[in-house]
Amino acid sequence: MIEVEEWGSYLMRDHYLIVPLLLFLLASSPQISMAAACGFPAKNFYLAKELAWGGVNSWSDVDGDWAKDSGEKTSPCVMVAVNYFLGRVIAVGDEGFLSNVLINESENGELGLRIIDWLAGAEMSSHRVLFDSAHNEMEDINSEDPWLGYSKLAEKLRAEGYAVDENAGQITLKTLRDCDVLVLNAPNRRFLMSEVAAIVTFVLRGGGLLLMGEWQMSQHQGVAKTLNPLAAQFGVQFREDAVCDPDDYWISDPRYPVIHVFADSPIVENITEIRYYMGCSVKKL
At a CB cut-off of 8 Å and minimum separation 6, what does 111 contact? Predict the structure, then answer.
């Protein structure tokens, strides 16, 4: 039987009933059962890697005073990638970097396509990307609004051969059956326990999941609290803060930092700059 102690500490913070479900799935998945029979522990199926950070003088602003205070983290992480059993997850602290107004700025659009390609395991056949809209997400794939629309992202994905669809109802395994990548952009309506179970099962079986957050002081409140019960299943947490950089920002003030620091990873290879739009930081648990 697969050892679960090493990941049990974060596996189910709020929705503990998923643990028996996952144990059942572990036993019923041919690939994972075979590995378990060979004595591989669960840690061999889970790997999280930080991919991008704020600059050397950037900080995680927790109290909204837009000043670096004692105890506020410097050079916070803004993106984490997770290999989770047969699936993949990416958590980014800002949904706005792919909005219509920013997707063609710096290398935002290129990074967005790289993320989706990695999540889909893309050696292109027709992959399906599903954007959820049932949990009061910030961006709308059908909208041309500069700040609140993802229509240009949808166009880019279709041009690359992806099928792009929207989900406006409860998330179930049936919803995700023909989906390769599920996108949740800054939701602030809580997920049902059954929805969390369906999403975790989807990823465990090989699906891709893109989670995107929002800065803590946004009028679109409660995004971190909404995402974290789900994100915790994959060893990730969205922090209740805003990433600021006093030295390098692309408009008006430090709440709009330019991200230049990237990991050694194929996902961000040769990416040198993205524009971050009042996003939060992300951390591994």
Answer: 97, 268, 271, 274
CB distance 42 to 2 below 8 Å? yes
Please check whether residue 15 lies inside any domain of the structure.
Answer: no
pLDDT in the model for residue 259: 98
In a domain, 19, yes or no: no
CB 276 within 8 A of CB 243: yes
Using an 8 Å Cβ cutoff, are 58 and 244 in contact? yes
User: Alpha-carbon distance 249 to 23, whole Å?
Assistant: 46
Q: Indicate the number of domains in the chain.
A: 1
Note down the domain range covering 157.
46-284
pLDDT tens for residues 51-72?
999 999 999 999 988 889 999 9
pLDDT tens-digit map of 181-214: 999 999 999 999 999 999 999 999 999 999 999 9
β-bridge mates for residue 77, sequence order: 53
The answer as to whether 27 is a domain residue is no
Q: Distances in Å between the alpha carbon of 188 and those of 11, 67, 138, 158, 212?
A: 22, 27, 8, 27, 11
- Residues 33/25, Cβ–Cβ less than 8 Å: no
Is the whole-model pTM more than 0.85?
Answer: yes
- Residue 133 predicted with pLDDT over 60: yes
Name residue 171's amino acid: I
Helix runs in the chain, H state only: 5-11, 18-28, 30-37, 108-120, 151-159, 193-204, 223-231
In a domain, 13, yes or no: no
Q: What spatial distance separates the first Cα and last Cα of the chain, rounded to whole Å? A: 24
What pLDDT shows up at residue 150? 98
